[in-house]
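Hi all, posting the design record for the shared folder.

TITLE: backbone redesign
STEP: 1 of 1
STRUCTURE INPUT:
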């Protein structure tokens, strides 16, 4: 991102980097060769390198703009200021062209995701209504139906940014558009949505950044301490009239070390805690070999931060949900752990602990 320092003269409104608030606005007092003196709105005077100072748009609208391509300056402080102005009004979504940016509100915003909202976004061109994941899902759905070409929606962001929540919203909209209303048996889209808690139990863990962390940032070179759990590729298949006909969920890049190595205050995968907390009747139910589900407590192993001594678990889930995920957790007496790659044909990883 380039500074447009050529436009900056004495008296210009500018943005200067600040250690505390990231960017602070101010007025240029002096320009000497490559240095610039700025009177900040906080009252302090700072001297900065000219190339690191960005012009501030004096005509920036009070509540920001719903599409960043409308900004006079598309630089970092301009983008952040716009997102903040909107966020302060509970407008957590903003476009940059046909990309949707979501800022995690960490609270429920009323009337943002329900059927009446989905109904409003049906068939509406991107940009006609407030930015929303439903608009992105609608655009993908329309293009698929009209052009007969498969569509992909990429959801990316740092840990805890809201990828899982955004994916759920996208899927809810696609299920709404492509669902077969009135069918007696549970529909594919319901099953996909219902599979979330099962997959999350096996692939999500509490991290320092997120109590329910899942996705991977392995390729960004981030620390594993709050990084990889697993990545998920959800494929929804539609028939020629745009109704959902099938689905597949592929998982990849499971953070295996988290099964046996967790550093305080993080945790291992949710399923371990759920099983430890399960009532006895559930445990005995899970022992039933006919159901292809079994839980065996083999011995005890120390896993920091779970329970001081946690029973080793041997689980085999075969019929927990209609997708029949072949997820296996087996643990044996030795302290050697091994997690095998996905077994062929299974939707979810097979995990073995030895
Ligand atoms: N749109 C939203 N509205 C309200 N709360 C939200 C929203 N998006 C995210 N959150 C809150 O933030 C938490 C973290 O979000 P989420 O699990 O979607 O992040 P993530 O990007 O998938 O994280 P990770 O990469 O670590 O798995 C959620 O559990 C929820 O409490």
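Okay, here is what came back for every position:
SEQUENCE:
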């Amino acid at each position: 991102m380039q500074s447009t320092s050529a436009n900056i003269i004495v008296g210009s409104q500018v943005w200067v980097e600040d250690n505390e608030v990231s960017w602070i606005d101010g007025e240029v007092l002096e320009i000497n060769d490559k240095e610039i003196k700025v009177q900040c709105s906080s009252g302090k005077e700072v001297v900065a390198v000219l190339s690191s100072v960005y012009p501030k748009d004096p005509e920036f609208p009070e509540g920001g703009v719903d599409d960043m391509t409308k900004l006079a300056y598309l630089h970092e402080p301009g983008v952040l200021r716009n997102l903040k102005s909107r966020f302060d009004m509970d407008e957590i979504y903003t476009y940059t062209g046909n990309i949707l940016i979501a800022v995690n509100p960490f609270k429920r915003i009323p009337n943002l995701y329900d059927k009446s909202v989905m109904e409003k976004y049906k068939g509406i061109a991107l940009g006609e209504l407030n930015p929303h994941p439903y608009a992105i899902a609608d655009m993908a759905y329309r293009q698929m139906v009209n052009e007969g070409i498969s569509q992909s929606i990429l959801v990316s962001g740092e840990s805890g940014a809201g990828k899982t929540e955004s994916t759920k919203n996208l899927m809810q909209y696609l299920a709404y558009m492509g669902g077969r209303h009135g069918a007696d048996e549970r529909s594919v889209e319901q099953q996909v949505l219902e599979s979330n808690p099962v997959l999350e139990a096996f692939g999500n863990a509490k991290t320092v950044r997120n109590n329910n962390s899942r996705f991977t940032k392995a390729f960004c070179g981030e620390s594993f301490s709050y990084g990889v759990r697993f990545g998920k590729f959800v494929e929804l298949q539609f028939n020629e009239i745009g109704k959902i006909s099938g689905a597949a969920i592929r998982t990849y890049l499971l953070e295996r070390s988290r099964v046996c190595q967790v550093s305080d205050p993080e945790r291992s995968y949710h399923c371990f805690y759920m099983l430890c907390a399960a009532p006895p009747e559930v445990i005995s139910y899970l022992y039933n070999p006919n159901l292809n589900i079994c839980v065996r407590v083999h011995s005890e192993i120390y896993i920091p931060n779970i329970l001081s001594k946690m029973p080793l678990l041997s689980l085999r889930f075969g019929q927990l949900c209609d997708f029949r995920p072949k997820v296996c957790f087996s643990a044996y007496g030795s302290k050697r752990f091994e997690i095998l790659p996905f077994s062929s044909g299974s939707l979810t990883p097979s995990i073995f602990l030895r």
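COMMENT: The two ends are 50 Å apart (CA to CA).
Let me know if anyone wants the other runs.
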